[in-house]
Amino acid sequence: MSEWLVLSLAMAAACAVVLSIAFFNHRRIGEDDDPNETPDVIEYMTMMIGVIYAIVLGLAIAGVWEGRGAAQEYVRQEAQALHEVSVRSQVYPAEVRTRIRADVDAYVTFVVDTEWKAMADDGELTDRGGELLERIRRDVTDYEPQTDHEGQAYQPLVDQVAVADDARSARGASAGATMPGVVWFGLITGALITVGLIFTLQIRRSFREMLLAGLFSALIAFLLFLIWDFDAPFGRGISATAEPFLTQFSHLDLGG
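Below the sequence we write its predicted structure tokens.
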């Protein structure tokens, strides 16, 4: 069963139960009942809906902000692992060391100058980036250590390549939008309901009331925009950056 169908049925059932209870309760009320003696629940319901929606907005903002932070951490781990590969290859012969460092530099340059834009536009990694990383793996694993010193450096180098590969995969998984459509449906519907409830309180056309209503609506719009902006960690304004690559590989002309 589709999640949208389940959602629609659940919402319809909840409305039906509440309206049925209100309908049958109204039939039980006698003709001598004075509604003025019953506390008005409109203000209470309006307040509760606003509080619930504020909690939902807060959770959504916290979730997308955490996702952006995790995406930035994946970038840092990948850059650090590649830097370790480049530095630890120092113990290898000049020919092998030069080849490893050249392939690491080529991969980093491609990620920053080309793949980063592909992640922002398409929300996914490129095949070329995977090929360049695989070339680094072969450089490290195909070499047979000739001395004890090289043998001691071999496994740590293999481990760092694995760390870089894992961080790259995590970076790719974080490239696209993570907020499900059903959550956006709830956020937008909740915003419309929350703003619409302003008019149940007999808002007048005084400057103060109109100003507060406008500011309240603008605040909700801003918070929704903030969630949308954080939802794609590599593709929008306040996004994760390639700064770890720029820092660890400052000898390259990156991001130009």
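The CA atoms of residues 212 and 218 lie 10 Å apart.
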